[in-house]
Design brief:
The complex is a heterodimer of chains A (406) and B (441). Chain A contains 13 helices and 11 strands. In chain A, the strands form 2 sheets. Chain A has a 6-stranded mixed beta barrel. In chain A, strands 2-10-1-11 form a 4-stranded antiparallel β-sheet. Chain A has 2 domains: 170 residues, no CATH class; 196 residues, no CATH class. Helices cover 50% and strands 16% of the residues of chain A. The radius of gyration of chain B is 30 Å and the shape is elongated. The chains are: A alpha+beta (406), B alpha+beta (441).
Chain lengths: 406, 441
């Protein structure tokens, strides 16, 4: 296929050619960045969380009287435990992804706590059975023993009086990079220390805490006695029993304690709600991409059809002097390929620029390079598909057209 | 002449319905996307207190006494002492303290409904007149109620509907935690966007500020009454040292009270700024606080400082306008194709004496007509888009509606876009050489 005649023809139609190039360039730039954003958000939605998400029902009991909490909470726990199908029940101060977080800054030495970069960690407090009720996955060490549960009350500064803690793997890596975490001391404030007795797979904190995905897994767990502030109940059952267990649990607690406000949710609902905004942003981006590609394709179809109509006579002459249908088809396909190429080259530069702008203004990360060629290929394919219809029509122009005056 | 061009335009559009449909579709889709996001932007970035926002200010003093790394900006709230010191001087025309709203257990005393958790805002009496809060029944509490720690409350119209079936509940009793408050006022439906008096912490939010557009609290009660009935149960903005459980909030090393003031003249604003600076310097000299940075931002500045429009919304708006640009390019190409195909017809018109200007006018009339039809389609698509936004679980989804100004903008934008799209093809068409065209006929 000779390119020279195509270029010569395009030179005669500078403006329409330029329009197609610009349209493809802009589509390529937007597509790159939109797909990148979709990818980021999808991985955000699927961020791992090593608890038994499918089996946990969460019942929030608000307004427990602090004076009787010590007796009330075990009563609530016992009631929930009696529901058929319930495996384990525990009370805790908060659940992952519920947006209300107990956070504290921690360090590996008393001096480190004053450092500005001391990590901010979500502090989960669990009554007996907590690790089992959440389904924490132990990687090293052990969970808490009965004495540790019994000895730990909610003390000053909303910290447990016990001295043991289980940390997530990400937190252990942040605090002691390259070392084992077991037996090490965590400092909270200048006077409180906790000994790491176990390391668990990464559990999410109640909110992202403005730190991106890395800090999302900085959680630690301590044992605690019942207290009025420990008002969330995790009820674990088999996934198929979960909805019934939740219904019965809420019902029974409401009957047991008419003075408190009981609210129940499955953990899957909590997770869905947390990421609802992100999910709708993904759908909107997908919608924009699809419609944008469709509009671009229609634009190519429209302009190429116009060119085919305009050049019927020339096509007829070419056919009359020996060009095959395939030649004509190839001509329009090559022409489109050249325009697309020009478009995606500009588009990739534009995409890169937009990414830089977004990095500066919208906490976006750098786009991996392979997004650029990938969207270039996508637009090449789109262009070829769009041009096929008009090109086939061009190929069907009979040679006899050449002999007619138009 | 215009009606003649219009007639020509309609004929021309009818002659090639597929091409017409493609152009109208491109404009409609582009306008639909752009106007959906623009309407969301318009709703979210609006002034929540029109006419008054320039006189309402948010005061900040840095109450942290501990020396440490450099503080460049005071925290978003103050400790009890600083906030009440400033409030009690009554230097501003109006002043209101606000706390971080927190859900508390409430129930109507003479109702069999189960208790419910409802956000409660503790504030002072000027809150209602300063923010033009509309009342359905009764009124706000008095300045005396503030200092007397009166057991009174104002409830939202939404809560009044839920608890009292929308009837006049002034005088009835509301149990908040373990205290009985007498209802003195019921609000009319009131939904400022954003919920400006609760906006804070935006610089730590990473652009995720959809929460600023939530509903107002169900219960408003006097700040000092709150000290009695909600002790140990307040939320704070931040603390510079660990608070102890059971430590009274008035002594807590925490920032948890905000101060809004109304200042009606520039002179008063300047005077209040000086007052704040003097207060901070005096307190620093006394050794109670460690920093003298103060701020007094007016409402819109404070919102802007908190980057109050969610960054996702801004991103969507950019995206939609890029999309509109693609649709524009598309329409330019199609119009060009359309006009150039009629080169012969235009050549004859030119040969018969039509000026270039007349050809341009004719072409632009056709482009404008496409824009008008596309605008109609775009308006319908915008309504669909806004409906989709309302189906989402964002706090602002209930707020998003098209108003008259946005309705007009839709059509103006559609026609402007189509005229821009038509400009180049029209000028090309007007440069058709008549002689050449007639020769080929």
């Amino acid at each position: 296929m000779q390119i020279q005649p195509i270029l010569a023809a395009l030179r005669k139609h500078k403006i329409p050619a330029l329009l197609i190039v610009l349209e493809i360039a802009l589509a390529c730039a937007v597509l790159c960045n939109a797909v990148f954003m979709i990818g980021q958000r999808v991985s955000e939605i699927h961020i791992p969380n090593a608890i038994d998400e499918a089996g946990i029902s969460v019942i929030d009991v608000q307004g427990i009287d602090p004076k009787t909490a010590n007796a009330d909470i075990p009563r609530y726990l016992a009631t929930l435990r009696q529901i058929p199908g319930v495996a384990v029940v525990a009370a805790l101060n908060m659940m992952p992804l519920t947006n209300n977080s107990w956070n504290t800054n921690v360090a590996t030495s008393p001096a480190g706590i004053m450092a500005k970069d001391s990590p901010n960690v979500a502090e989960y407090l669990l009554t007996k059975g907590g690790p089992e009720a959440l389904g924490l996955r132990l990687l090293q060490g052990r969970f808490f023993n009965d004495d540790e549960y019994a000895d730990s009350k909610l003390g000053d500064s909303y910290l447990p009086t016990g001295h043991t803690v289980v940390v997530t793997r990400s937190l252990a890596k942040r605090l002691w990079p390259g070392q084992g975490a077991l037996g090490k001391q965590i400092w909270v404030g200048k006077s409180n220390t906790f000994t790491v007795v176990g390391v668990v797979a990464d559990v999410l904190r109640p909110d992202e805490n403005g730190g991106g995905a890395a800090r999302f897994h900085w959680s630690m767990f301590s044992p605690i006695n019942p207290h009025a502030s420990i008002q969330t109940f995790a009820v674990r059952s088999a996934p198929q029993d979960r909805d019934r267990v939740l219904r019965e649990g809420v019902h029974k607690l409401e009957a047991l304690a008419p003075n408190v406000v009981v609210k129940g949710k499955t953990f899957t609902d909590i997770r869905d709600k947390y990421f609802a905004n992100t999910r709708s942003m993904v759908w909107m981006l997908v919608l924009v991409c699809v419609v944008m590609l469709a509009v671009t394709a229609f634009g190519i179809v429209g302009l190429t059809s116009f060119w085919v109509g305009q050049r019927r006579r020339q096509i007829g002459i070419r056919r009359a002097v020996g060009a095959t249908r395939r030649h004509i088809l190839n001509y329009f396909q090559t022409e489109n390929f050249l325009l697309s190429t020009a478009g995606v080259v500009i588009g990739m530069l534009l995409a890169f620029g937009i990414n830089l702008y977004l990095m500066q203004h919208y906490q976006m990360t750098r786009m991996p390079w392979y997004y650029l060629p990938a969207s270039a290929v996508a637009l090449w394919v789109l262009g070829q598909l769009a041009v096929l219809g008009p090109a086939l029509r061009a190929a069907n122009v009979p040679p006899v057209v050449a002999t007619r005056s138009v | 002449m215009f009606t003649y061009y219009l007639d020509l335009a309609v004929r021309s559009l009818r002659r090639n319905p597929v091409l017409t449909f493609l152009m109208v579709l491109a404009i409609a889709v582009g306008i639909g996307a752009a106007m959906t996001t623009l309407t969301v932007m318009h709703v979210l970035s609006g002034d929540p207190l029109p006419g008054k926002s320039a006189h309402v200010f948010y005061a900040q003093v840095d109450s942290d006494p501990t020396p440490g790394y450099k503080h460049t900006e005071p925290p978003d709230m103050m400790d009890y002492r600083s906030a009440t010191d400033l409030w009690s001087t009554h230097r501003a025309d109006r002043q209101a303290l606000v706390t971080v709203p927190k859900p508390l257990k409430i129930r109507a005393s003479d109702s069999s409904l189960p208790p419910l958790m409802e956000p409660v805002l503790f504030t002072t009496s000027d809150f209602f007149p300063m923010f033009d809060v509309p009342f359905e029944y009764g009124s706000g509490w008095t300045a005396a109620d503030d200092t007397d720690r009166a057991r009174v409350a104002v409830i939202s119209s939404d809560l009044n509907n839920r608890l009292f079936g929308g009837k006049d509940s002034v005088g009835k009793t509301l149990r908040v935690r373990n205290a009985d408050l007498r209802i003195v006022g019921v609000l009319k439906p009131w939904r400022p966007s954003p919920l400006f008096y609760d906006v804070r912490g935006g610089r730590f939010a990473n652009g995720d500020t959809a929460g600023y557009y939530g509903k107002p609290e169900g219960v408003f009660a006097p700040f000092f009454t709150g000290l009695d009935i909600n002790e140990g149960n307040f939320w704070w903005f931040n603390c510079w040292a660990m608070p102890k459980p059971g430590e009274r909030m008035v002594n807590a090393p925490c920032n948890w009270v905000g101060l809004w003031v109304q200042l009606d003249s520039p002179a008063k604003v300047a005077a209040y700024r000086t007052f704040l600076d003097h207060y901070a310097q005096q307190q620093k000299a006394l050794g109670r606080i460690g920093y003298t940075e103060t701020r007094l931002r007016d409402l819109m500045d404070w919102l802007a400082f908190n980057h109050f429009v969610p960054s996702d919304v801004k991103l969507q708006t950019w995206l939609a306008f890029a999309f509109l640009a693609i649709c524009l390019f598309n329409t330019v190409g199609l119009l060009l194709a359309k006009f150039m195909r009629r080169a012969g017809e235009i050549g004859i018109r030119r040969a018969l004496g039509a000026s270039r200007r007349a050809v341009v006018a004719q072409c632009l009339t056709e482009a404008g007509l496409i824009g008008l039809i596309g605008g109609l389609g775009g308006w319908l698509l915008t309504l669909v888009g806004l409906w989709l936004v309302r189906q989402q679980q964002t706090p602002y989804s209930g707020l998003v509606h098209m108003d008259v100004s946005m309705f007009i903008v839709t059509f103006v934008l559609a026609i402007v876009v189509s005229l821009i799209a038509g400009a180049l093809p029209a000028s090309r068409a007007s440069h058709v050489a008549p002689a050449l065209q007639i020769k080929t006929l």
